Amino acid sequence: MSHHLSADHIIDLYDRHAFTWHQKRANHFTDRKWIERFGALLRPSATVLDLGCGSGQPVARYLVGIGARIVGVDSSNQMLTLCSAQFPEQQWIHADMRALALGRQFDAIIAWNSFFHLKPSDQRGMFPVFRRHAAPGALLMFTSGPSYGEALGTFEGETLYHASLNAKEYADQLRINGFEVVDHVVEDPESGGLTVWLGRLLP
User: Fold this and answer.
1) What is the CATH number of the domain that holds 119?
2) How many angstroms separate the CA atoms of 180 and 140, rounded?
3) Which UniProt keyword terms apply here (predicted)?
């Protein structure tokens, strides 16, 4: 499958528009119910790996507020600067999630509205990354598209790339890497149409 040119310009786009994105996202929490559900499943003081953490708004903000300890990873330096200014007690790492190897495991992993910016081939490669960083019983939650293919949105007048595998392949990738599917909702009308996967690493 050939990919739209915008697939290679996501980091640059977010770097240039980081503060605008931060302001808009901080006040746009239509997906709150899923973050609340994720948080309710965490043990007290759980360690959460936030992949594609953006500016920390509103997801990391909510999780920090309920006592979770966050390690946020993003490819955008500008986004991480915003994270550090707001939550200096948490850990923020400039890295590409596709090649992540932190050498530690977490109680939970979230790749919320970030994983779906990866090309399909890169999404497949993320499941071993999830597995390496997941402690036994760890939660995993991410957003995808509803079906296989690419989808092009816009942000600040520029093309913003999204892609997805199909549901069977996501389920297979989770199973092969030791995760059970806890829930899967396609285009949830209560959360702005997001397609959500919630899994747990089998002990």
Assistant:
1) 3.40.50.150
2) 10
3) Methyltransferase, Transferase
| 36 falls within a domain | no
Interatomic CA distance for residues 80 and 94, integer angstroms: 7
Is 27 part of a structural domain of the chain? no
Q: Helix, strand, or coil here: 132?
A: helix
- How large is the average pLDDT for residues 169-185? 98
Which alpha helices (DSSP H) does 104-176 contain, by range? 120-132, 167-176
CA distance 107 to 175: 18
Note the maximum CA span of the chain. Answer: 46
Number of domains in the chain: 1
- N-terminal to C-terminal alpha carbon distance within the chain: 36
Work out the pLDDT band at 110, boundaries 50, 70, 90: very high
